[in-house]
Structures are given as C-alpha cells and as structure tokens.
Sequence to fold (148 residues):
Amino acid sequence: MRAVLQRVTRATCTVEGQITGQVGAGFMVLLGVAPSDTQATAVALAQKIVKLRVFNDTAGKMNLALAEVGGAVLSISQFTLYADTRRGNRPGFSGAAAPDHARELYAEFNQALRSHGVEVQEGVFGAHMVLDLINDGPVTLILDTADW
Fold:
C-alpha cells in the first residue's frame, strides 16, 4: 500500500456537489492499493499512521500522535499513486490493484483506523472527487509498505 499523508487544518471531499467527508485538524490520507496487499498490510499501515508523531507539542516540536491532538482522518482511495510514468507521456496503472480488491482493502484500512478510536471520514471509492484542504505546516509524508 502507498499512502500520502497531509497534515491538515481542515479537509473536505465533494462528489457531484455533495460533501461526502470532512474533517478539521488531522490527516487527509490518499491511499493506493497494490495487487499484493492484504488485510494485514491495511492493518499495519493504519497502525503506523495512528502512531506517527508529527503533530506539534507545546514547544512546537513534532512530538504528538493523531489521538493526542484529537485529530481525524479524511481517507481517499487513490489508485493513481501506482502510476508508472517511466516511459512515454501517459501513465500506466497496471501496478494498482483491481477495483474489487482495492475497495475491500480501502474499507479494511478505514475500519482499522476506527478500531484505534480515530474518527474517519471517507471519499467515494471510484468517484470523481474534488478535494479541498488546508495543509498544516505544510507537512506531507509518503508511506509505502513495500519499503517495510
């Protein structure tokens, strides 16, 4: 799995003019699923995200985790994180999981976050989504479970 985490002050997902998910302080997570990813991968990634200490403490140092700041997650499925742009000008997406597999693990990932007591709002899997966010910091991190 690949995830792009953006520490946000606020983030909103809109589909066809309707807000489908919105959070205040926390993370907006763009999540890509690979064919080899499993339920264990989804659970491990969720646990890593929940424990990351990237929120500022009273001294202004990144030392606090999501729960310690009362943060929430706006979770967005994002197959384009597996775009292959090595050749030509049109990305290939063969590195992304098939939709049924990706949908299942996206749901598993969101449930794993919730099992840690995190509020999770979602986009709409497979939909054209409009994302609006205020990146806090800005702090943007890329996590790839293939590197673990």
Remarks:
- The radius of gyration is 15 Å.
- The beta strands are 2-15, 18-23, 26-32, 55-56, 62-64, 72-77, 119-122, 130-144.
- Residues 6 and 140 are 4 Å apart (CA to CA).
